[in-house]
Design goal:
Blueprint (H helix, E strand, L loop, with lengths): L18 H7 L6 H11 L8 H23 L6 H16 L4 H25 L7 H46 L6 H10 L8 E8 L15 E3 L6 E5 L6 H8 L3 E5 L8 H17 L7 E3 L4 H6 L3 H11 L8 H16 L4 H8 L3 H15 L6 H19 L5
């Protein structure tokens, strides 16, 4: 008979001589104590079980021994009920957080005890040793079947546990990012359920996947909450300013465009994520560089300026009106030169380095700008308005906005 659970071909259970049935029945079902004792000595984890669990294990061992004797008598006997028991045992081991390795070691130890006892009894009753090989094969086939059932149950439970934990962590992430913020009590309860310690400081990370041949999930430590299946994927990072945290994120997110919001308390994570997403949008537009993990606190001026870019654009068309009568190509050069001058304190050498032109070219353009804007070019009160106007002007024109 084939005893493979999945329907695939397997070695047939050997047809043993009739005398083996009575021989095995005479002692094998009484070997349970010996098997359990051996397991508890060799696998310490099973020596500390509560009485209820130990009773269940004993029932499984005795059931396996009885089914083996029945299988020897009738190789076509069904193993469905027994394999269901071992699937449940494997499922329970995973739910309790125990190792599948220990379970399989225990099963092999039990088989070894049974084979050792069979060998000893066969010598006592002077049974032919030629059949011992077939008996050993039968025991191994039987063990393989039960081990496969236990492994199937274990993996099913592991997937279930992982799915439940993943759902709890996503719920926690949703609560932490909610605006208005969820109550501290709700967050604390969700954090306990997800086995996540609420830290003193956190930051949100907004993500956008770069175009790659295959999806690569970032390898992040377990204290980082993530949801990559959202329309706008994101992370929650505890202690973002701690030693090595930035390097860890940069390494894990090398296949993503990522912006990290300001460090805040847990109740302010929604705002941290909002600012991180705004920064990521600016990076996509080329307003801020997309060169690794973008720290939104490094780009606060840009965030402020582009928060209401329509207002700034309207003001810019008035503030920069003298440039409108100049042809587009030269107008763009003068606008970029003026922005660089404002950012460099009108230092011609530094501006030249920024723009990759000769300092004399900068002086020539600056002279033209002075003719266009007059004294207001150097008015401290006008400097911020000029810079804000130029940043939005240059970005929107580059994106095709008509002046």
């Amino acid at each position: 008979m084939s005893i493979a659970l999945d329907g695939s071909s397997a070695r047939a259970f050997p047809q043993l001589p009739d005398e083996w049935t009575g021989f095995l029945e005479s002692f094998l079902t009484s070997v349970a104590d010996e098997m359990i004792a051996e397991i508890q000595v060799k696998v310490p984890e099973y020596s500390r079980l509560d009485p209820t669990y130990e009773a269940n294990i004993r029932a499984a061992v005795e059931g396996a021994l009885q089914h083996f004797v029945e299988l020897v008598a009738d190789p076509e006997a069904s193993l469905e009920k027994l394999t269901e028991v071992y699937r449940f045992i494997g499922w329970g081991e995973a739910r309790e957080g125990r190792s599948l390795d220990n379970l399989q070691i225990a099963m092999r130890l039990g088989a070894r005890v049974a084979l050792r006892r069979i060998t000893a009894e066969s010598e006592r009753y002077d049974l032919p040793r030629s059949a011992l090989g077939e008996m050993a094969e039968a025991i191994l086939l039987f063990l393989d079947e039960l081990a496969a059932a236990a492994a199937a149950g274990y993996h099913a439970a592991s997937e279930q546990v992982a799915g439940e934990q993943s759902r709890r962590r996503r719920r926690l992430l949703d609560l932490l990012l909610a605006e208005p913020p969820a109550s501290p009590a709700m967050v604390a309860e969700a954090a306990r359920s997800a086995e996540w310690r609420v830290p003193k400081s956190v930051a949100a990370v907004a993500l956008r996947e770069r175009r790659t041949e295959e999806f690569l999930q970032p390898a992040l430590p377990p204290d980082v909450l993530m949801d990559l299946n959202r329309h706008e994927p994101c992370l929650i990072v505890p202690d973002p300013d701690g030693p090595g945290r930035r390097q860890m994120l940069e390494g894990a997110l090398r296949d993503w465009s990522a912006a990290i919001g300001p460090t805040v308390e847990a109740g302010e994570l929604g705002r941290s994520l909002r600012w991180a997403r705004d920064t990521l949008v600016l990076a996509e537009r080329g307003v801020v560089p997309d060169d690794g993990l973008i720290r939104c606190v490094d780009h606060m001026p840009s965030l402020v300026v582009f928060k209401d870019e329509e207002l700034v654009w309207t003001v810019a068309k008035t503030r920069l009106a003298p440039l409108l009568d100049i042809r587009a190509r030269h107008r763009d050069r003068l606008a970029r030169t003026l922005l660089a001058c404002l950012q460099s304190g009108f230092n011609a050498t530094e501006v030249a380095n920024r723009l990759h032109v000769h300092p004399q070219t900068v002086r020539y353009r600056l002279h033209q700008l002075e003719e266009l804007f007059g004294d207001q070019l150097y008015d401290p009160e006008a400097r911020m308005a000029f810079e804000m106007s130029l940043r939005v002007w240059l970005t929107l024109v580059a994106e095709g906005r008509e002046v």
